[in-house]
Amino acid sequence: MSQTTSLNPYTGEAIQSFKNHTKKEIEDILQKADKRFYSWRETSFAERKNLMMAAARELENNKREYAETMTQEMGKPIRQAIAEIEKCAWVCEYYAENAEDHLSDETIRTDASKSYVSYEPLGVVLAVMPWNYPFWQVFRFAAPALMAGNIAVLKHASNVFGSALNIEKVFERAGFPKHCFTTLRIGSDGVEEVIQNDIVKAVTLTGSGPAGGAVAATAGAAIKKSVLELGGNNALIVFEDCDMEETIVTCVQARFQNTGQSCIAGKRLLVQESIAEEFVEKLIVKVRELKSGDPMDEETFIGTLAREDLAKDLEEQVQKSVKQGAKILIGGKRQNAYFEPTVVTNVTSDMTMFKEETFGPALSVTTFKDEEEAISLSNNSKFGLGVSLFTSNTKKAEKIAYRFDEGAVFINELVKSDPRLPFGGVKESGYGRELSKHGIREFVNRKTIFIA
């Protein structure tokens, strides 16, 4: 396919067409990126910090411009799109301020006169990124990678090429040297060959399990480092001693922000039997208040899904669960790429909505008798990205946190990514970590220096 056209999922209209890169152009981009690496790694942390702070200012100063493209391409409500740009500025600032400390030499006492570990950049790193957070997913990789002295090459999802080019524009406007960050306009079928290229030293992917498996296999065959951030089927576990009003607000936000298109969204609501009826009744009231409509409207909270086929997939998952005995309490209807905010109850662990990741505004409800059953239900998943526990007994929640097979446990809060904390999962949610000092150290050579 020599050309890619992005469509507005709300209007169905074509936005822009992009000419895909040829093999010759791809090789040229990689050669220039490789050449840039050898001068970029010589720059000081102070130089990189100034440039990264400039990128943060560029994001803040032109956030509306970047957010509007995002909204047009994948249907994200405009206020949430602006918030995403602001979060990207935050991650730039965080690594500008902390990268030098995260990567400072680590002295280790041995029988040497001096021995230490240094953290050195690898070179050109390929990022394969999804459409659901078109800026954030990229910046949480790019900011640490560039601050570490690496070079970033992006293969973005084909429906958000406009956002991909805008990210490139951010770094250009900030004053980064050419070829520090470059976008490859290629389809998924072109990723394998790029990973196999000797210039590419490592790869990171955020996306689906099958995509992650394919990338990991290619990287593994070439003996190259990979980091995978894949799907999730997070549980929201509501105990009877929770603060009900606050918990409901948090659960609605956890499931329905970004129109439910998030790997870390709370998708399975597990509620203790003793409060389930009252909790769900009040939850429905809040869900009903969510405003759907034009994503460019400042008041819209629920936009469309990014593509119509995604809405059809979600509709099928809901209908399968209903046939298996579940009950729709609100929503359930689809119109083109729009899917109503939906709550489905009487969901058991053998049903589709419990077992599969639902990537859209549909929440399944399952009840549990006690703590043991709650833990068992939560862990009954092939995914392990995160879990939220809601209870007034935070000491007890902290004590049982180790029993959850997850990359993160959030108590009285929705699972979220934060530049200061490591982010990633276990099981089929992937491996490796992004963000914090753990994220920036994924794509470095931990070199031992020993002086006798």
Q: Give the strand content.
A: 15-25%
Rounded to the nearest angstrom, the radius of gyration is 22 Å
Query: Mind telling me the CATH superfamily name of the largest domain?
Result: Aldehyde Dehydrogenase, Chain A, domain 1
Spatial strand sequence of the major β-sheet? 12-15-16-11-10-18-19
Describe the model.
- With 452 residues, this protein is of the alpha/beta class.
- It has 2 domains: 3-230 and 429-451, Aldehyde Dehydrogenase, Chain A, domain 1 (3-Layer(aba) Sandwich); 234-420, Aldehyde Dehydrogenase, Chain A, domain 2 (3-Layer(aba) Sandwich), CATH 3.40.309.
- Helices cover 41% and strands 22% of the residues.
- The chain has helices at residues 23-40, 45-61, 63-74, 78-102, 136-147, 161-174, 191-196, 209-221, 244-256, 273-288, 308-323, 352-355, 371-379, 394-400, 436-440, and strands at residues 3-7, 14-19, 106-107, 114-121, 124-128, 151-155, 181-183, 200-206, 225-229, 234-238, 266-272, 327-330, 334-335, 338-339, 342-345, 362-368, 383-384, 387-390, 409-411, 426-427, 430-431, 444-451.
- It has a 7-stranded mixed beta sheet with strand order 12-15-16-11-10-18-19, with helices on both faces.
- Helix 8 (209-221) links the parallel strand 8 and strand 9 (225-229).
- The model has no long low-confidence stretch (mean pLDDT 98).
Which secondary structure elements does this structure contain, and how are they paired or packed?
Blueprint: E1 3-7, E2 14-19, H1 23-40, H2 45-61, H3 63-74, H4 78-102, E3 106-107, E4 114-121, E5 124-128, H5 136-147, E6 151-155, H6 161-174, E7 181-183, H7 191-196, E8 200-206, H8 209-221, E9 225-229, E10 234-238, H9 244-256, E11 266-272, H10 273-288, H11 308-323, E12 327-330, E13 334-335, E14 338-339, E15 342-345, H12 352-355, E16 362-368, H13 371-379, E17 383-384, E18 387-390, H14 394-400, E19 409-411, E20 426-427, E21 430-431, H15 436-440, E22 444-451
Parallel strand pairs: 5-6, 5-8, 6-7, 8-9, 10-11, 10-18, 11-16, 15-16, 18-19
Antiparallel strand pairs: 1-2, 3-4, 4-22, 9-21, 12-15, 13-14, 17-20
Helix pairs in contact: 2-4, 2-6, 3-4, 4-5, 9-10
